[in-house]
Amino acid sequence: LKGVGPRLAEALDDIGIYNYAQLSSSSVDSLFERLKETGGRFNRPVIYSIVEQAKLAVVRENSN
User: Which of 23, 32, 33, 59 has a CA 20 to 30 Å removed from the CA of 45?
Assistant: First the structure.
């Protein structure tokens, strides 16, 4: 997903987000707070963007 670099990918892994379905079902606010707890500095608009991208990816996966 655009905007997911190594630090964000590691933080997502640390909080138990491993796939598009998990990411797409996450609340942006909740996800942002959980990511902050990992000690990283993340940008809320980027978190919003990756959640929206994950939602689109899930729709594409389910339409095949």
Answer: 59
Per-residue pLDDT of the chain (64 residues), as tens digits, is 999 999 999 999 999 999 999 999 999 999 999 999 999 999 999 999 999 999 999 999 999 7
Exposure on the CB side of residue 40, measured as CA atoms within 13 A: 21
Considering the entire predicted model, what is its pTM? 0.91
Query: What is the radius of gyration, based on Cα positions, of the chain?
Result: 11
Residue 23 · residue 12 · CB < 8 Å = yes
